Amino acid sequence: MIASLKSYAQSLTKNLLGSTSESKQKAINYKDLASYYPEIEKSDWGVVIFIGNEDPWTGRNWCPDCVRAEPHIEKKLMPLCKEKNIPIHFVEVGGRDEY
Known about the structure:
By secondary structure, this protein is an alpha/beta fold. The protein has one domain. It has helices at residues 2-17, 33-40, 64-84, and strands spanning 25-29, 47-51, 88-92. It has a 3-stranded parallel sheet, sandwiched between helices. Strand 2 (47-51), helix 3 (64-84) and strand 3 (88-92) form a beta-alpha-beta unit. Helix 1 (2-17) packs across helix 3 (64-84). The radius of gyration is 13 Å and the shape is flat. The model is unreliable at 1-5 and 12-24 (pLDDT under 50).
């Protein structure tokens, strides 16, 4: 499940920001978040988005709030971050049973 969400986050950011974007994109497992603090703190600004994993039965994100937020993140937040060169860090919270 973690691999599928990483793939989702990477494809989402690649499609929206392009593979050569100045804004750095990360798909971080919540268990590893503390080890990424130094990298996250390198810039004055940054966005951290917590997302649920893809449900293996439905192929969609299990989190209804994430599903509702996704179009807004794609259409508004990601282009703004790209324009302002603000890094976005996706943090995977795991599956419904882990959350």
